[in-house]
Amino acid sequence: MAWERLTPLDASFLYLERPPTHMHVAGLSVFDPSTRPDPTRPWFEEIEYVIASRIHLVPRFRQKVLEVPGGLALPVWVDDPHFDLGLHLNQAALPAPGGRRELADLVQRALSRPLDRSRPLWELTVIEGLEGGLVATLMKVHHAMLDGIAAMQLAAAVYDLEPRSGVSEPPPPWNPEPEPGPAELLADALREQLAHPARALAAAVARVREAPDLASLGLGSVLAGVRSLLDLGTRPVSPLDVRVGPNRRFAMTEAPLERYRDVKNALGGTVNDVVLAVVGGALHRLLRSRGQPTRGRALRAMVPVSVRAPGEQGLGNRVAPAFLDIPVGAMSARRRLAAIRKRTAHLKESMMAMSVDAIVGLAAYAPGGMLATAAKLASRGPWFNLVVSNIPGPQQPLYLAGAKLLATYPSMPIGENAALSIACTSLGGTMAFGLTGDRDGMPDIELLAAAIDESLAELCKAAGV
Fold first, then answer.
1. Helices (H), 85-175
2. Which H or E element spans position 367?
């Protein structure tokens, strides 16, 4: 068979997308081009060579999505017989002075546009004109194609560990598989539906066995995780609870990863606990700047948790949502981190994310239309106030077409009725935050980026580092 069916989780990101809620993820990467072996050659051309010569390592980048007639089964990935790399690579130049504001303006305009569903669901923009002679890329990919960990695997295909030129060996010839017609897709969907009960059960059992934590703790722990999810209730009321529109705002900030590690080593917990405590302190400052009360207050974050087995490779999504109430009241930085540590420990013990992953696995052979309806209904529920995602990455120096990577600022989708997502990734020793917000609901997103810096400084002072 010349096509591959989307997983229920991957398909759900297609179904969740509507004009106000784009479901692409993105990464803004900033580079120092002074390390390039041949600085006279146009960097865009070198990147074009890199992508063209390595795209065969990521076959999904030459595939598009086809819907099954009548929504009788989940959509499928098929080779795009008309794939044209030139339609996915763009060039842009910032207006003077090429600072953060100009860069953020370009990014937020790009984030406000959905990807073209008739083509492979990605695009790369090469950005020049940054102050200090720096350059950047903005990679935008539909969430149906990958999660944060898969994005790191994708980076491994295009980045180098030394400053090499983009010129490389020509790629192997590509012969796309024939695109299936509606009748073929429909016949295959009907065959799956006939085998649906037995195969769905087998798929669910396999999903449980693939997750080491679930396999060791058994069904009782899964049910306990479900109970903890149901016990959460509706989210706290907050000014982030708005009906979002299609336009976005974007802001960024960064700090050495070593500062987060120093706080963790001095005060305990994990780097992720420190990230959440920094976010909590920044949200406290944001609420205070808006004249909002903060005493005893918490905001609920949806925190994507990876459920990949050790060594599991491949694109696609292997994440499940977990929910964490982040304290945003007035308190010492040390106390906020201690509260976060207690809540993340409880979250891990509750098996909430693993339980959700097992439930999603039960939808493996549900009709596409049924899953679409369920996904849309679930997205409208008042489950969380914001998204917070921490994506770990490799720490060695990385290069793209000879230019050294300085930082990557990620962007995650925002909820249908939640105006903010905060994502960070640690690459090459830099913890970089990308803040994505609804244009109307987050007019002060740059203030929040500055508040992240202040919150980290407060934690470092408390830790004596």
1. 100-111, 148-158
2. none
SS3 label, residue 164: coil
Residue listed under structure tokens 């591959």: 4
Q: How confident is the model at residue 127 (pLDDT cuts 50, 70, 90)?
A: very high
Comparing 33-47, 92-106, 180-194, 345-359, the range with the smallest average pLDDT is 345-359
Buried b (16+ CB within 10 A) or exposed e, 20-57: ebbbbbbbbbbbbbeebeeeebebbebbbbbbebebee
What global pTM score does this model have?
0.88
Q: Which of 343, 323, 355, 350 is nearest to 270 (CA)?
A: 343
Catalytic residue status for 143? yes
Q: What is the pLDDT of residues 245-257, one digit of tens each?
A: 999 999 999 999 9
Q: Which domains does the chain have, with CATH numbers?
A: 3-165 (3.30.559.10), 196-392+413-463 (3.30.559.30)
pLDDT of 137 above 90: yes
Greatest CA span in the chain, whole angstroms?
67
List the one residue out of 249, 391, 390, 233 whose CA is nearest residue 300.
Answer: 233
Give the helix/strand (H/E) hosting 434.
Answer: strand 430-438
Distances in Å between the Cα of 233 and the Cα atoms of 102, 227, 276, 386 are 41, 11, 21, 16
Identified catalytic residue from 143, 196, 284, 346: 143
Q: What percent of the chain has pLDDT over 90?
A: 60
Residue 299 and residue 331 in contact, taking contact as beta carbons nearer than 8 Å? no
Q: Residue 337 corresponds to which tokens in the numbers above?
A: 């981190």
Average pLDDT for 378-406: 86
